[in-house]
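How a chain folds remains the central question behind the approach discussed here. For one protein, we set the task of working out the structure tokens from the amino acid sequence alone. The sequence in question and its structure tokens are set out directly beneath this paragraph.

_____
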Amino acid sequence: MRPNVISHLTLTHHYGRKLAQRGHGGILLVSAMGAPQGLPYMANDGGTKAYVASLGTALNYEFGKLGVNVSVLLIAPTDTWVIAELGFDPATMPMKPMSVEQCIAEGLAALKANRPTHINGHIYRIMMALIPRSILVNFNGKMLGEASTRKHARLSQQI
């Protein structure tokens, strides 16, 4: 809860006030692509990421009147340590994770354009727009459930 909720709230409150006094600037918050749908096997983490998305969307409107841009980057699978931590092998994933550089560049472009939210990766944006929420929840549940099983099996072998 602290890194995903309290820190975002504290930082936006602190810096948002300073940027509003200046009359310009921007805040880029980081959430997750699946957070708005609910993430099976990651319910708490997904809920905290959904909070960040909601907070940033509301602040985009509120701070926009004060000359401050606020955007939320809904991160799609990106080539970081999190992929392995979740139990995935990037080589066997149906879609290759994007580079960190692409993720950052798209996030900064969304902030500059003052988009309330942005999903990085064109194919992921299309997917999220076309696939019904119930199917996304089921897909994520199957994928994250299998990854969780692999991760727990790996950890039990190490003991």
